[in-house]
Amino acid sequence: MQEKTSKDPLPAPPAQTLDFTQLTRAIKAWAEELGFQDICIADAGSDMAKAESGLSEWLRHGFHGEMDYMAKHGTRRTRPAELVPGTLRVISARMNYMPAEARDSWQVIRDGEKAFISRYALGRDYHKVLRGRLQRLADKITAATGQFNYRVFSDSAPVMEVEWAQRSGLGWRGKHTLLLSREGGSMFFLGELFTDLPLPIDNPVGDYCGSCTKCLDICPTQAIIAPYRLDARRCISYLTIEHKGSIPETLRPLIGNRVYGCDDCQLVCPWNKFAAVTGEGDFSVRNGLDDTSLVELFSWSREEFEARLAGSPIRRIGHEQWLRNLAVGLGNAPFSAGVISALQARRDDPSSLVREHVQWALHQHDSRAARVLESP
Questions:
Q1: For residue range 120-156, what is the model confidence (pLDDT) as tens digits?
Q2: Helix residue spans in 230-351 (DSSP H)
Q3: Mean pLDDT, rounded, for 96-111
Q4: 215 is an annotated ligand-binding site residue
Q5: What is the predicted pLDDT for the residue at 10?
Q6: Residue 234 above 80 pLDDT?
Q7: Residue 284 is labelled as binding a ligand
Q8: Is the pLDDT of residue 90 over 80?
Q9: What is the DSSP string of 109-164?
Q10: Among 2, 93, 104, 286, which residue's beta carbon has the most beta carbons within 10 A?
Q11: What pTM was computed for the model?
Q12: Are 185 and 271 in contact (CB under 8 A)?
């Protein structure tokens, strides 16, 4: 038998001898080392009846629009053990995404010639980043405990991320339906690790929105129809990302220059004065997307779109939908020869979806010009 040297890893202790309180402290320390700003633990077996009924009512009203995946999987969305058998705990983690070098969001939104892109999408696709870090966390736990059952998630599979993050004590659900933290606002990503380890659970925190309604009041399309209730069919994030067809004409002028997502409800939230910039290089601004003109982005060919946005979450919507969104932005932009020239260059685009929105945009400029001529 080979003699064990000091360099060989020590065997992991059996589960029954583990100090789970000490292990939890270690997990939280490892998570911080891996770049997470906070991590909390919820009981996977907690009563989710209220969350299930709330989701069912939301779906019954059709507020999910074309997001059919929200109606699939039944109770697996609210009962982790049905999704990953043996799950006892849901570990929720958050990671800041606001890049320090990004141009001020309000300045871009108020500059009609620019394209506003939600600040979470300026860098690398967060799905890959968070899943990779959570996997490394799981590897560290494995080294300490031996093999255990787990699965990592980041905005993937039927997981109610905000609900579990709220139950774990990571924050509370704001009136805009996003998770809020007293220490970090809402500009962060969430990820989860389902595990069969009986770790001590954290306590939920209170709701600190109070009587504030700033997020409801500022929503450009009034998609937040009541506190904690979102009609996704009117939400600009849904319309520019999830919605694949023609954007309703009545909503197009309200979108302004927001061509991928919308941050207004977060930007106005008082708690986001505590939102910290990220230290993650993966979330740094790429391709100048924090401060680029609509005309320039509209000129990208399919090949340029694919190459420039490789590794970006924006790439998932495809070039056609990208052009559709930009056409709406150009229709809302101040008149200029460059805007009209850019739109006219795509009047005969192979895509009927793009052509429709280009024609609408040109009509918007024609109508505004006519009103100017008719005014005394």
A1: 999 999 999 999 999 999 999 999 999 899 999 998 7
A2: 236-237, 252-255, 264-267, 294-298, 302-308, 318-332, 337-344
A3: 97
A4: yes
A5: 36
A6: yes
A7: no
A8: yes
A9: HT-TTEEEE-GGGSSS-HHHHHHHHHHHHHHHHHHHH-S--EEEESS-SS--HHHH
A10: 93
A11: 0.92
A12: yes
Identity of the amino acid at 254: L
Q: Is the pLDDT of residue 350 over 50?
A: yes
> What pLDDT is attached to residue 375?
61
Spatial CB neighbours of 246, under 8 Å, sequence gap ≥ 6: 353, 356, 357
Using alpha carbons, select from 127, 122, 212, 126 the residue that is nearest to residue 176: 212
With H, G, I as helix, E, B as strand and everything else as coil, classify residue 264.
Answer: helix
Residue 173 CB: number of other CB atoms within 10 A?
17
User: Has 323 been labeled as part of a binding site?
Assistant: no
Detail the DSSP E strand segments found in the chain. Answer: 38-43, 89-96, 114-117, 150-153, 172-173, 179-180, 188-195, 224-226, 229-230, 258-260, 292-293
Supply the residues annotated as catalytic: 155
The amino acid at 94: R
Indicate the helix (H) or strand (E) that contains 24.
Answer: helix 20-33
Where exactly are the structural domains of the chain?
20-368
pLDDT tier for residue 8 given thresholds of 50, 70 and 90: very low
